[in-house]
């Protein structure tokens, strides 16, 4: 990895490489029999680069990288070897993955109660979530404090049964066999809490309607990363 590719200095890069190698080893063990160590390591380092492009602090990047790489590998495994009893997969996309797509994902999670696998991503991810969004969701019992903006990846789209775009235009790749929905919802960035709550409630209604599009999940059990039933 070249330090010129990252917004941090050589010391941060050297520390990160050691941590990323440890992350790759852990994930390679988790995905034994599904992906080679080389594939896992490539995804880990790619994920680090992708997150580093919009990150403000190097210290949190390794932990976020492990979560992001793991999620990407789970999606890839699902695409390559779908489970016998698949759970519906929904992907929410907005421009920055800092507001609407994060709220929609959390709202669907609250309503679906484990019957759906949910991801969100952004075509141009921000450095962090909007504080007003975190506050508005906390009011209804959804904790987004540990969430982070994620870049849109091909495996996220490929794994999805339904792709919901929230104001990201043509940034989402279009693949056959997917159902695409486009929601016209204002961006909460810079809005006061009254408006953020209104947007949250509008998304909640859309999510309720979305549930009618989803096939029934098999026993409500999330898919295994190796694609087994």
Automatic annotation (TrEMBL):
Single biological process term from Gene Ontology: response to arsenic-containing substance
Keywords, alphabetical: Arsenical resistance
Taxonomy, superkingdom: Bacteria
Gene3D superfamilies: 3.40.50.2300, Corynebacterium glutamicum thioredoxin-dependent arsenate reductase, N-terminal domain (1.10.8.1060)
InterPro entries attached to this UniProt entry: Phosphatase-like_N, Ptyr_pPase, Ptyr_pPase_sf
The keyword Nuclease appears for this protein: no
Record-annotated Phosphotyrosine protein phosphatase I domain positions: 88-213
Pfam families linked to this entry: LMWPc, Phosphatase-like_N
Listed name of the protein: Protein-tyrosine phosphatase, low molecular weight
Organism listed in the record: Catenulispora acidiphila (strain DSM 44928 / JCM 14897 / NBRC 102108 / NRRL B-24433 / ID139908)
Origin organism lineage: Bacteria, Bacillati, Actinomycetota, Actinomycetes, Catenulisporales
